[in-house]
Amino acid sequence: MNIILLGPPGAGKGTQAKRLEQKFGLKQISTGDMLRAEVAAGTAIGREAKAIMEQGQFVPDPIIVEMIQNRIGQADCSQGFILDGFPRTESQAEALDSMLAKRELTIDAVILLDVSEEQLVERIASRTSEDGTRRKDDEPEVVRSRLKVYRDQTAPILPYYEREGRLRRIDGMQSVEAVGTALDDLLVPVSR
Ligand code: AMP
């Protein structure tokens, strides 16, 4: 089973993706985590992405598309994957469809975690990682530009998935547990 999790930054995609990995034996593919690893390792991609990410803007589509193309073909994705943070632009959505078609893979569910913007700013402001450090792009002014970029570039891909009735919505303002249950209810029938 292959899934796309959509939603603005702070909607809970990462948290829920980790839960789904355990529950359904899938692999989380987070382009944000992959880029942060590139930055930490000081690779060419990391050097290009660092400043862009710190401003809350999007890393160029060709870099992202190539990263995903390499990732979905790896052995640990063979039981299925959860795309978290990709696609984020219409051109990424189209590139995804064509790379899946080439591999004869399909997406079984496209799920939007629906949340209100005001609560997102609060939620992200109080977010720290497990080691207690804070992402630079979680500073309030960067969060605001990330939300704007989401509104301008990512929200417009929703109709792409809404056509053919592919998009399912879950209320992301509920507790982590309630969102998890809603996801399970939606995915258990799909996983059979
Ligand atoms: P995330 O952890 O998903 O919020 O991603 C953190 C940052 O990485 C984003 O604000 C972008 O700068 C960059 N990024 C992650 N995924 C993508 C993507 N699919 N397209 C472009 N930029 C991305």
UniProtKB/TrEMBL annotation:
GO molecular function, one term: AMP kinase activity
Binding residues for AMP: 31, 36, 57-59, 85-88, 92, 135, 146
PANTHER family for the chain: NUCLEOTIDE KINASE
Cellular compartment(s): Cytoplasm
InterPro entries linked to this entry: Adenyl_kin_sub, Adenylat/UMP-CMP_kin, Adenylat_kinase_CS, P-loop_NTPase
Class in the EC hierarchy, top level: transferase
Keywords: ATP-binding, Cytoplasm, Kinase, Nucleotide biosynthesis, Nucleotide-binding, Transferase
The EC number(s) this enzyme carries: 2.7.4.3
HAMAP family on file: Adenylate_kinase_Adk (MF_00235)
NMP, as annotated region: 30-59
Residues bound to ATP: 10-15, 127, 174
Primary location group: cytoplasm
Name of this protein: Adenylate kinase
One Gene Ontology biological process: AMP salvage
GO cellular component: cytoplasm
Free-text note regarding domains: Consists of three domains, a large central CORE domain and two small peripheral domains, NMPbind and LID, which undergo movements during catalysis. The LID domain closes over the site of phosphoryl transfer upon ATP binding. Assembling and dissambling the active center during each catalytic cycle provides an effective means to prevent ATP hydrolysis.
SUPFAM superfamilies reported in the protein's UniProt record: P-loop containing nucleoside triphosphate hydrolases
Stated role: Catalyzes the reversible transfer of the terminal phosphate group between ATP and AMP. Plays an important role in cellular energy homeostasis and in adenine nucleotide metabolism.
Annotated catalysed reactions: AMP + ATP = 2 ADP
Record-stated family: Belongs to the adenylate kinase family.
UniProt pathway annotation: Purine metabolism; AMP biosynthesis via salvage pathway; AMP from ADP: step 1/1
Subunit annotation: Monomer.
